Inverse folding.
């Protein structure tokens, strides 16, 4: 059975139909880790997980086959032990599991002692954050981090299949378009002289990727970004991954089409490629998850002007609805409670809110003809609120320059960014998705600390 | 001709066979940038590039169709201008280009002035490094950055097709396994207190990804890494991307098989998916490129012990060969000149050098039974030298702990790393590929500054 090396391959081959002739494949070798081990004195059962698949494979070991001494040894292998196993592969169509392995030999490759923290019981997410180097071995985090990996591939396939060029925008940067909460970088003696200028960790790749957009038309970034906000919330981390596509010869409507395509592609992709994991999330993390995601797939994305949203929220308050921020007025920055009301109560589905007041949005967003709003959109979805933020970019040299000067930006540092408007500029647009937030949305996990391999937040960097 | 929006789609459809009925598709709309514009007084030709494809499409504009005034206007559009074009799509099997567009209308979407730096002439790489925001518009850098994008996809496909889990190891870290040349991170007031401990930019994801390897079996990282070396060479940058796979239940031989598969997969992938770009590199950057890469595809990768390599180099010196570092002795760190001699002159093909002296390799590499060497491998290839470095990891708790203590490492910070050897540890191995160096290898470009979107090196961060 040379060709079957992993539990994933076994499940994918023998779980559903296509059961090939077993004569030639009954001998099998596997490696993996013990999840549980129990016995009745003459027959024992080990649930083995080899990391390649969400489900375990059942090993059956028999005193009559192994002998007394070996049986006794195997029966003492603890949860977490690493094993090399040989045995006979047996289909068991009458049992709960589709197949099992009748052990002929087991070698202990790596043992554990009684201090192993992952004994068979449920651990709280909080406790597991204290052992981030071990938590990927639990069911929940195994599912989370496989989802994270599969979703990364979904992103790359979505964009590359359409000819987008992936750009590694720099992490080290001298400029920022995302405010003051930026980390600073020095050499170990805290010397700024390495690069000869102030050096920050990038909070967004957008500014840099725009130059590639104006060469390649359709481009995207996908990499780590950083904020040094001194806040502890469920949705903020100091290091997180962002996806930032940018498209040339495109306006806000083109942008929203791309966002809708991207989000629905990701949902379909993980439903197809993480089937077991998504079932697990739905059973153990958020029982509304699959309904919620399928609802998004089957609901056209709606669009609503910010100005209309304000009217609706005002009416809601007048009719007795209470928000924590209950004073609704045009020009305000909407809170999550307002966004969720609009997407959950008003349109009951995904909603693009568009054309926000220019004062509450970034300098690079294109000013609309009304002189008051910019061509920006936020995608709001039920249960989460804002999932994606995008905009058409200001492509008019004079308008952009005036806005930047008014904002007291360093015009020397941004000269090259303005060049993009002088040298064959064109209308273009883009958006940003917080990748970690997308993993949360697709898994039902509600704390960003539980979807990142090693999470970094204010006052917290254990590993 | 609604369905054809990009020049890439046109070339992929009409360049080779499969010429569909043109009756329904003769009207076309395109957007793009002027590469050249010339006319003979009554007929003009614009080479338009829309960013989606390496080749340009030819626009033909005719005074009899556009009228005198419009013809005059169009004839003054400069290189770099952004255009919206409508016209008739015409197959031209008798011409050099397979098709052209007979213009019916052109709108100028974004103009340029005479200061536009990319006029039609060849620019030096050095000059283009001064205008990194514009160089993707040149043929060479268009090819480089598309190769970079396609090669990223090759990496993800190679690993994901085999079930590897992609792990976003952290950039911010409290530990490092890559020496002293690390950047430090603070808040803007140079305060270390944000995380409550010394914070570095990671030089490698390996240490962190090992914990995922021991949960998922086969994993990989692909992300930015950092070094603050104060050196200016053609191959070192302060920020670069690394690929670091890690495989469980695997030894050095398994590791080398994976490296060989990965490198040949990448070569085949870019030859198939960047055909025009690879031809361009072969014609204009390195005329030996395609021969060199095809040679690697057709040559089995050889293996040689470090100890044997030292003997061969000693003999070469004895026979009159001169190296800059000409004193060859066991225990030395091989220089690029030695590595290239071995791969180019001795085996004339890809070569794994294995089992290096433990003193010149990292603490985490597995000590061999001879007590003198470690199970490490470097892949050497002609024209470049070292392309990949890998090793089997020390999985024996006591051996690793003793080595770390001897090296005066911070045992508190690394406690969790040692845990991986206490809790179901197993033999495992991994390797690292510098992604930027791989782009150089596959393009023939010889300076790392010319394969990175925005390069960061000592004393140099322009954008």
């Amino acid at each position: 059975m040379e060709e079957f090396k992993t539990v994933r391959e076994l499940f994918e081959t023998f779980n559903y139909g296509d059961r090939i002739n077993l004569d030639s494949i009954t001998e099998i070798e596997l490696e993996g880790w013990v999840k549980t081990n129990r016995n009745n004195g003459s027959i024992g059962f080990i649930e083995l997980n080899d990391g390649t698949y969400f489900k375990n494979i059942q090993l059956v070991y028999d005193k009559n086959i192994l002998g007394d001494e070996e049986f006794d040894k195997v029966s003492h292998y603890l949860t977490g032990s690493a094993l090399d196993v040989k045995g006979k592969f047996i289909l068991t169509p009458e049992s709960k599991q589709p197949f099992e392995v009748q052990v002929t030999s087991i070698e202990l490759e790596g043992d554990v002692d009684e201090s192993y923290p992952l004994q068979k019981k449920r651990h709280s997410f909080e406790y597991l954050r204290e052992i981030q180097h071990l938590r990927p071995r639990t069911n929940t985090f195994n599912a989370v981090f496989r989802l994270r990996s599969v979703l990364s591939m979904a992103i790359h396939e979505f964009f590359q299949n359409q000819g987008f060029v992936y750009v590694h925008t720099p992490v080290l940067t001298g400029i920022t378009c995302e405010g003051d909460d930026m980390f600073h970088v020095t050499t170990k003696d805290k010397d700024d002289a390495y690069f000869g200028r102030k050096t920050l960790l990038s909070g967004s790749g957008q500014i840099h990727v725009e130059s590639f957009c104006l060469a390649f038309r359709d481009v995207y970034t996908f990499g780590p970004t950083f904020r040094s906000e001194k806040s502890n919330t469920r949705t903020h981390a100091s290091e997180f991954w962002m996806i930032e596509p940018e498209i040339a010869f495109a306006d806000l409507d083109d942008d929203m089409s791309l966002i809708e395509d991207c989000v629905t592609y990701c949902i379909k992709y993980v439903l197809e490629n993480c089937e077991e994991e998504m079932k697990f999330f739905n059973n153990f993390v958020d029982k509304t998850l699959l309904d919620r995601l399928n609802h998004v797939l089957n609901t056209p994305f709606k669009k609503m002007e910010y100005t209309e949203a304000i009217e609706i929220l005002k009416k809601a308050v007048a009719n007795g609805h209470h928000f924590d921020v209950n004073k609704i007025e045009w020009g305000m920055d909407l809170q999550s409670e307002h966004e969720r009301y609009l997407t959950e109560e008003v349109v009951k589905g995904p909603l693009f809110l568009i054309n926000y007041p220019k004062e509450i949005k970034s300098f690079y967003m294109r000013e609309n003809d009304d002189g008051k709003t910019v061509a920006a959109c936020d995608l709001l979805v039920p249960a989460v609120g804002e999932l994606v933020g995008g905009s058409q970019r200001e492509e008019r040299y004079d308008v952009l320059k005036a806005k930047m000067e008014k904002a007291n930006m360093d015009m020397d540092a941004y000269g090259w960014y303005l060049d993009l408007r002088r040298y064959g500029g064109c209308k273009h647009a883009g958006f940003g998705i917080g990748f970690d937030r997308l993993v949360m949305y697709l898994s039902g996990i509600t704390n960003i600390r539980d979807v990142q391999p090693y999470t970094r937040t204010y006052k917290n960097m254990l590993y």
Observations:
- The mean pLDDT of chain A is 93.
- Chain A touches chain B through 105 residues (CB under 8 Å).
- The longest strand of chain A covers residues 27-39.
